[in-house]
UniProtKB/TrEMBL annotation, chain A:
Protein name per its UniProtKB record: ABC transporter domain-containing protein
Location of the ABC transporter domain: 4-222
Record-linked Gene3D superfamilies: P-loop containing nucleotide triphosphate hydrolases (3.40.50.300)
GO molecular function, one term: ATP binding
Organism: Cytobacillus solani
Keywords assigned: ATP-binding, Nucleotide-binding, Transport
Transmembrane segments: none
From TrEMBL, chain B:
Keywords associated with the record: Membrane, Transmembrane, Transmembrane helix
Segments traversing the membrane: 12-35, 41-63, 91-109, 121-143, 155-185, 205-228
UniProt protein name: Uncharacterized protein
Entry superkingdom: Bacteria
């Protein structure tokens, strides 16, 4: 089911064309990344999709009732404590206070901001405010979630938490986000739109890459590694080797290495 | 909608931006009733003008309170830009109520009038204050939430409209042709000329009331359209 459709849409602000000839369809459940350089029109396209911007010409159809929006920078002048702010935002959607308190508590634990729930937002760090921005959008229970560079200001652990949270979200949820970071694009997007000078220059379905694992091990001698079935072997030092194997084969390879007297230093899953 | 009104009200109160206009308003009322035995309707006419100025000020302060990203978050939660505008107006009218009640009841409590209040006086007084507050909100919205809200000239333009509307009668007496231009400004004199020493209900009174209601309706529609156009 298509929830957003644009046909040669154009957006002009103060006489300047910021989006040109945007033709685009987004279906329910898609996870779309919008990439491009600074000033290329990524955020404007996101706002056009969300209806914050209306098209100056061309045609746009939106079939979505609830939109969650996370701006790139959380507003600076909000004069509420975090929990008070989130409660008010949730109540605007007709949700009950008891339900909201429970959900805020859950999200606060996920994003590790429980200690800041009673802190005025003005006194919170940039990263904490960004997390509040993400939680307010999730509280809507949106049909489409729009995230404008959501990883800005987040530490590495929270970036991974956010990615996991978004990836585990209900399948019907459509997510459109702008990003520079490969972490979010690789981990979440199934479609990547590239924007330059206000135009869509590429719109590609992302191929699902096979998972593989990188094993870093200390080997007694280099001949052992030759007997290991792998995609790629690379010696980092004389006795330290990095072996890339398919995910399905990793347990077998690890067993072989351990049986041969090797010591495992690191194991990383990649795509 | 009530959550949004609460959000706006708390955010505005905590910004302390209400203090200058409200202090000036209260001072105006105190000075107005510094003398006793003053006429009822003309005094209320003056306090209506005060509410006109203060509501313009409050509306402009309220509409310029949020940055773009906060506004977009609110649009997303409210589901429409029109609901956002309505919520702002509801908040402003909530703020207007205590101001109006103060203007109406302060002189009664302090026994400042030279005569007793009647039902007709109460009705005309509440009507006059409400109409002037609406004028103020509309002028404030026009110059802070529409395409006319060019930052550098917004306050100057709002003051110009207020001055023109308050001086329209004198201006027309000086140059009659101005009546073809000045009708676009809020018709304050259509209300205030009935706030003289005597309250007379005649055809002229009803024509003026109908004109004011039509003016408010049309201006509201125009302001809503201009707001939606700006937020396109």
């Amino acid at each position: 089911m298509i929830i957003f459709e644009a046909d040669r849409a154009r957006k002009k602000i103060d006489g300047i064309n910021i989006l040109h000839d945007i033709s685009l369809c987004i279906s329910r459940g898609e996870k779309v990344a919008i990439t491009g350089h600074n000033g290329s029109g990524k955020s404007s396209l996101l706002k056009l999709i969300g209806g914050f911007y209306e098209n100056t010409s061309g045609q746009v159809k939106r079939i979505m009732s609830k939109t969650g929006y996370v701006p790139e920078h959380f507003p600076e002048n909000i004069r509420f404590k975090m929990q008070e702010y989130l409660l008010l935002m949730g109540k605007m959607n007709g949700k009950s206070e008891s339900e909201l308190i429970k959900r805020i508590q859950i999200y606060a634990e996920i994003f590790a901001i429980t200690d800041f729930l009673n802190t005025p937002l003005k006194n919170c760090s940039k990263g904490t405010k960004q997390k509040a921005g993400i939680i307010q959008a999730l509280l809507i229970d949106p049909d489409i979630l729009l995230l404008d560079e959501p990883l800005t200001g987040l530490d590495e652990a929270t970036q991974v938490e956010l990615l996991n949270e978004l990836a585990s979200y209900k399948t019907g949820l459509t997510i459109v986000f702008t990003a520079h970071e490969t972490l979010l694009i690789d981990g979440l997007a199934d479609r990547v739109i590239t924007v330059a000078n206000g135009r869509i220059i590429a719109d590609e379905k992302k191929e699902i890459k096979e998972k593989y694992r990188c094993i870093k091990a200390i080997v007694p001698n280099q001949t052992i590694a030759l007997e290991i079935p792998s995609i790629h072997i690379h010696y980092l030092e004389e006795h330290t080797v990095e072996i890339t194997v398919l995910c399905d084969h990793s347990d077998e390879v690890l067993t072989k290495l351990l049986e041969s007297g090797c010591s495992i230093v690191e194991l990383i899953e990649k795509r | 909608m009530s959550a949004f009104v609460r959000y706006e009200l708390l955010n505005f109160i905590r910004s302390l931006k209400f203090i200058p206009p409200v202090v000036i308003y209260l001072a105006w009322i105190f000075i107005l009733y510094a003398y006793k035995n003053v006429p009822i309707l003309s005094s209320y006419g003056v306090s209506s003008i005060a509410i006109y100025l203060v509501m313009t000020w409050l509306a402009m302060a309220m509409f310029s309170m949020e940055e773009e990203s906060e506004k977009h978050i609110l649009f997303a939660h409210l589901g429409s830009k029109w609901r956002y505008l309505r919520g702002k107006w509801h908040t402003l009218f909530l703020m207007m109520i205590p101001l109006m009640l103060f203007a109406v009841f302060f002189p009664i409590i302090t026994g400042s009038f030279n005569d007793g209040m009647t039902i007709e006086y109460y009705l005309l007084t509440f009507f006059c204050h409400t109409v002037f507050a609406i004028f103020g909100v509309l002028v404030g919205t026009l110059f802070s939430a529409t395409g006319l809200a060019v930052k550098r000239y917004a306050w100057l333009s709002a003051v110009f409209v207020i001055v023109c509307s308050l001086a329209s009668k004198s201006l027309i007496e000086t140059a009659a042709f101005l009546k073809w231009v000045l009708w676009i400004f809020p018709p304050v004199f259509n209300v205030i000329e009935h706030m003289g020493n005597e309250f007379i209900v005649n055809t002229d009174f009803w024509i003026n009331i109908i004109f004011v209601i039509i003016y408010i309706t049309l201006t509201t529609i125009i302001v809503v359209l201009l707001f939606l156009k700006k937020e396109r």
